[in-house]
Write a structure and sequence with these properties.
With 417 residues, the chain is an all-alpha fold. It contains 18 helices and no strands. The chain has helices at residues 6-21, 27-40, 44-66, 70-85, 87-108, 125-141, 149-156, 170-177, 185-210, 214-217, 224-255, 273-277, 282-293, 302-321, 325-354, 356-363, 365-391, 394-416.
């Protein structure tokens, strides 16, 4: 059930009317039922599977709440995450990738190939899995006590955000759900406006640009200029597509009184890749930082370790987006970018401290304007060319990079001569 379908509009309208009609204590059940209907629409078995996994996670959370010994609590957290919350994600999303990677190695030793699963992945399985992991961590930290099963089901499968985010936080979600209030006219108007804005971004802008990005998706036989044009077209297509879905999700959630975190804040106007990731898919960036980058040591253990941590965090981010090695390569592309930005900051800070004249120029209005303009230009193009790895396998991406580079060289040569 896609956001732009009449079926979704009908479900959203029915859920909205019933939600604000029933007593407050029944609202969680309305959301849970609507979310199960939305989730089960394409494949009912997937809804049953995710509800079963959610019930197991809820059971582990009960054990966590009762456990007092720190070692036991840690093992229960590991069990809940690695033994319950993530295996379904690993099987449906990454088993085929793992088998496809292992089979050529097995063939070298004359071993039988692993079967490659061909099951369709449950809807929004990455978002659901992240939500379950986040919930278990919150229980482990003591921030959640005795979650209500119906409220928990509404949280896990919350239909405005289950397919494309933004990723919601359990505590904020429950605060909004348990707020005994009636429908607010300004909230409803804001929600409807965000839905319309999102539909415009998706249907009018993103879908119109999609045809222009075809040379990137099928680069074989395309000339270099067409591929370059396709790179920039896809850069805007993916933004307006994803930002449009986020607007619809945020608006739909606001109709029910939920304030879901923003996901984008003018990311293509940022002066470096670090700022880009603080404004692109912000709900995911915060969770990757909190659950991967900081536990690995963050920036607390020297330059080399910080760079390794950034690479690891961005590799996880790449895998989260898709089960293929080119997504990992895309994540590493950005990890390298983050490491270079950090090194550049340190180098320029050192130079400006030792060269007062350079500090004076850099601090002037002209210097700041040049810094901002060049930073935005370089960051935008770094992100744009990174999307090539997001779309294509590494060998095809290399073909695109090589073709565009040779085109640029020939263009400069013609301009000079």
């Amino acid at each position: 059930m896609s956001f732009e379908s009449w079926t979704f509009l009908g479900l959203l309208t029915a859920a909205f009317v019933v939600y604000w009609t029933v007593p407050h204590r029944a609202r969680a059940a309305v959301l849970a039922v609507a979310s199960v209907v939305f989730y089960a629409w394409p494949f009912p078995a997937h809804a049953a599977l995710m509800l079963a996994v959610s019930a197991l996670v809820l059971g582990v959370s009960r054990l966590l709440e009762r456990a007092e010994e720190p070692r036991t609590r840690k093992w229960l957290l590991v069990l809940g995450i690695a033994g319950v919350a993530l295996p379904v994600l690993a099987f449906f999303k990454y088993a085929a990738m793992a088998a496809g990677t292992a089979n050529p190695l097995l063939a070298q030793f004359g071993l039988a190939a692993l079967p490659i699963p061909k099951f369709a992945a449950p809807l929004g399985i990455s978002f659901v899995s992240f939500g379950l992991v986040h919930f278990l961590v919150e229980v482990y930290r003591g921030d959640v006590v005795r979650a209500n099963p119906v409220e928990f089901a509404a949280y896990v499968l919350f239909f405005p955000t289950v397919t494309a985010g933004p990723i919601k936080r359990y505590g904020q979600f429950m605060d909004d759900l348990r707020q005994p209030r009636g429908p607010a006219r300004d909230e409803i108007a804001y929600g409807a406006m965000r839905i319309l804005i999102g539909l415009f971004k998706k249907l009018v802008i993103a879908d119109s640009i999609a045809g222009l990005a075809v040379p990137l998706h099928a680069p074989v036989g395309q000339n270099s200029l067409a591929m370059l044009f396709g790179i920039y077209a896809f850069t805007f297509q993916i933004y307006y597509d994803f930002a449009g879905y986020s607007d619809i999700a945020i608006g739909a959630a606001r109709l029910f009184g939920f304030r879901i975190a923003e996901n984008f804040d003018r990311p293509y106007l940022r002066r470096n890749i670090s700022e880009f990731w603080r404004t692109w898919h912000m709900s995911l960036s915060r969770l990757i930082t909190e659950y991967v980058y900081i536990p690995l040591g963050g920036s607390r253990k020297g330059r080399a370790r910080t760079a390794v941590n950034a690479l690891a965090a961005m590799a996880v981010s790449g895998l989260w987006h898709g089960a293929a090695w080119h997504f990992v390569a895309w994540g590493l592309w950005h990890g390298v970018g983050l490491a270079v930005v950090r090194w550049w900051r340190e180098a320029t800070r050192l130079l400006r401290g030792r060269l007062p004249a350079l500090e004076a120029v850099a601090s002037s209005r002209v210097g700041e304007a040049l810094s901002l303009g060049s930073g935005v230009f370089l960051t935008f193009n770094f992100v744009a060319f990174g999307w090539v790895l997001f779309v294509l396998p590494v060998d095809q991406a290399w073909h695109v990079y090589r073709s565009v580079f040779l085109y640029a060289v020939h263009f400069v040569e013609r301009a000079v001569t």
